[in-house]
Amino acid sequence: MSRSAPALRPYLPEDAPLLAAIFAASIMDLTGDDYSEAQQEAWAQAAEDEAAFGKKLAGQLTLIATLQGSPVGFASLKGTDQIDMLYVHPSAVGQGVGAALCEALEKIAGARGAKKLKVDASDTALDFFRKRGYVPQQRNTVTVGDEWLANTTMQKTLDAVAPSPPGGHA
Predict the structure, then answer these.
(1) Which residues form the N-acetyltransferase domain (predicted)?
(2) Assuming Cys at both sites, which of 44, 122, 125, 170 could form a disulfide with 27, CB separation 3.0 to 4.6 Å?
């Protein structure tokens, strides 16, 4: 059975409740090997205020990945050079959703002049970003609610979009 590639579209304000649900499901179902239940709950609480969550997504360049027209993941670019969020619903993991979102943000960042793209990757996402060419820079500890969570700042050097030589000759 051939799977269709995820389609990407821009974030719309009415997507906030569904993306909040994807965010929470992704954290609660996928990060249990790396974070305690208390850490997961504190992290997932970031989406409980859907209005604030939606405002954050609207304030960044946010893309939504869909499979058969249904949103299954999202990613956001903060400024020109930082992936702020990249979350995929547990039911869609392994279907190229995260890769499609990450690749799109890399292309957008490069087109906007970024030379490098950074991400603060959760321990769960380290291998995903490592396979995409991101290199660990430093370990961080962030406070979320009453919990401390570790993550790793990773960075990828983006391929420079070579300008065409003058006169059109290579």
Answers:
(1) 6-159
(2) 44
